Amino acid sequence: xxxxxxxxxxxxxxxxxxxxxxxxxxxxxxxxxxxxxxxxxxxxxxxxxxxxxxxxxxxxxxxxxxxxxxxxxxxxxxxxxxxxxxxxxxxxxxxxxxxxxxxxxxxxxxxxxxxxxxxxxxxxxxxxxxxxxxxxxxxxxxxxxxxxxxxxxxxxxxxxxxxxxxxxxxxxxxxxxxxxxxxxxxxxxxxxxxxxxxxxxxxxxxxxxxxxxxxxxxxxxxxxxxxxxxxxxxxxxxxxxxxxxxxxxxxxxxxxxxxxxxxxxxxxxxxxxxxxxxxxxxxxxxxxxxxxxxxxxxxxxxxxxxxxxxxxxxxxxxxxxxxxxxxxxxxxxxxxxxxxxxxxxxxxxxxxxxxxxxxxxxxxxxxxxxxxxxxxxxxxxxxxxxxxxxxxxxxxxxxxxxxxxxxxxxxxxxxxx
Length: 417
Known about the structure:
- The structure is a single chain.
- The chain has helices at residues 27-37, 56-63, 82-89, 100-108, 114-121, 134-137, 140-151, 177-191, 231-242, 270-279, 322-328, 346-356, 397-408; strands at 14-19, 41-46, 92-98, 126-130, 155-156, 160-163, 169-173, 206-211, 216-219, 222-224, 246-251, 262-266, 285-288, 295-297, 316-318, 335-342, 361-366, 377-378, 380-384, 389-391, 395-396.
- The chain has 2 domains: 8-191, 3-Layer(aba) Sandwich (Rossmann fold); 200-303 and 311-408, 3-Layer(aba) Sandwich (Rossmann fold), CATH 3.40.50.
- Helix 4 (100-108) crosses helix 7 (140-151).
- Helices cover 30% and strands 23% of the residues.
- The strands form 6 sheets. An 8-stranded mixed sheet has the order 12-11-8-13-16-17-19-20, with helices on both faces.
- By secondary structure, the protein is an alpha/beta fold.
């Protein structure tokens, strides 16, 4: 990769890189090298234990700046407040690797070293890249700390699957430096509210997204529906448009602003959504994120139904199965992605839906107080037809949208333009 093209948007940016004490610290050298090649100004911060894995001299030589390891420097020049000034200087603060100890300190607001103190004071976007053995990663305490960082507004880049320092194989590897670079690029583009020309990987691709609930009217003043806000679907539409796709968003009743460069089609009922989707079914990628009602009243009263003295019996009929209709008339090379909201036996139900509806990918979302309807965050699991299953930590719906698009548009699954 050359700095002049893929990472042009990073030139002149100020990047803080925090390195904590894990074996993955060796990757920080390559990350600094890539950042410098892209024309950024990099300041490295290290926890005391990080120097057990890689020397400050090495990172200082590559970055061209002395590495900061102490919160209280020996010089009496006022630099003891540098954790404040650095937090204002940086465009992005990246912590890679972030150990379980560092995650715990950040989640709890502890600031006993230069890295955690600067993280607590930083005003810039913060990207946390956990790396540790899988057993440590999946421990409820670590997951709680990751969830806390997400609620603070920080971005968490999930670790990858592979060989671990313990000799085991599992989730916990630090993503490759090139992947971290791409996330930094996306964060800077999102922070300035513009489209990132270095990550327009969906040019000439047509994407259809559904979002929000449907309403199935009983009479003119009552309807059956669900609490879907449409936030996940809107985040997907926005991310796809930012990547250069021609995006059509078909949404039920949702009080959200239309993302830039997205064609929006408003519908109300499941039948209306079915008709709109089928009219745009030739898209290269179809992402069905809407919470479509499975049932509707057999008859819709033309006048308000008055309350009687007894109970009312409501007869329901099945609504159109949009996913089934899509796969029955599927365009050649089309990528079909569905969503599954579950409250129990999530993986079993998601696998069945993936198979029965002949989808390429399905996004499983277990309903909790922090994940699902009307929330800002999601904890999702991605499954595909080849047997890949990937559970992600709690993150914002905007971050989840980026990861969903990353996975479904990987080389092996990418649709033809």
